[in-house]
């Protein structure tokens, strides 16, 4: 598992959470692997960011929770499925597995805020 630095932001007005891997720029492909959860990938099919629209509803948490800067994201992809886990203040608040219908290659990233 590779550990990467996370830059996260939460737009309370529009209820959008973005977790970006530092030192990445833009994205080559955008996959909606669950309703309102988007995984952005570079040209090598490695993640650059996660975007969650309607984040407080999707994650079933208060908006104030999403403003916490202690965020970690686990993203793992196998040939068959993609797993996404979101932790805030070291507590798992969301977990989702979905089929890997996008033919994304295997990887395992833990992305943490400093």
Description:
This protein is mainly beta and 114 residues long. The chain has one domain. The chain is 8% helix and 56% strand. It is built from two helices and nine strands. It has helices spanning 55-59, 63-66; strands spanning 2-11, 16-21, 29-34, 37-41, 47-53, 71-77, 81-88, 91-99, 107-112. It has a nine-stranded mixed sheet. A hairpin with a 4-residue loop joins strand 1 and strand 2 (16-21). The longest helix is centred in the middle third of the chain and has 5 residues, at 55-59. The radius of gyration is 13 Å and the shape is globular. The mean pLDDT is 92.
Number of strands: 9
- Which stretches of 5+ consecutive residues score pLDDT under 50? none
Fraction of residues in helix: under 10%
Oligomer: single chain
User: How is the biggest beta sheet arranged?
Assistant: 9 strands, mixed
Q: Structural class from helices and strands?
A: mainly beta
> What spatial order of strands do you see in the largest sheet?
3-4-5-2-1-9-6-7-8
Give the N-to-C terminal Cα separation: 18 Å
One letter per element, helices H and strands E, the order comes to EEEEEHHEEEE
Q: What best-fitting shape do the alpha-carbon axes yield?
A: globular
